[in-house]
Amino acid sequence: MASVPISRSEIIEPLAETNRVYAPDLPGYGLSDKPDIEYSLSFYIDFLKQFMDTLNLGQASLIGLSLGGGISLGFTLGYPMRVEKLILVYVWGIFNKLPFRRLFYWYTQTFVNELSYKLSSKCRMFVKWTLLNSLFGDLDQLSEELVDEMQEVLKASNAGKAFMSFHRGVK
Prior knowledge:
- Helix content is 52%, strand content 8%.
- The protein is built from 8 helices and 2 strands; from the N terminus they run ααβαβααααα.
């Protein structure tokens, strides 16, 4: 089976050959600032609007994975004239019922969430297991480069801050 590109460099570089591509780290994630605020879907939709306004992008095609998909969909619903095309992958918020919702709710509301971030920064296999079970499900589609990138980001002392804030706000 051919490997599907999934790391930022494997996706952005081919797209950039024929398109102008912007891929900002969301506030609170990756290498971006992690302000002490409540992270929510409306916060991220506003961030995307401000980002596009700052770059004078009247209209854009949006591609979103997971939370990025939820943000892209919310932005499209709020500002339909600003979206040329919308590509959604494994969209956060699009489900009748969250699989294992009670377990997920418990996980996001307790110390276990913070503990898993600390474990991820120290154990590469845990990062790989988390990516396989949360987004990809197929070992052949998970690049070692992405596992390395994720583990490096997870080493920051406040790596899970935005995720925990976002999910604690979702009822």
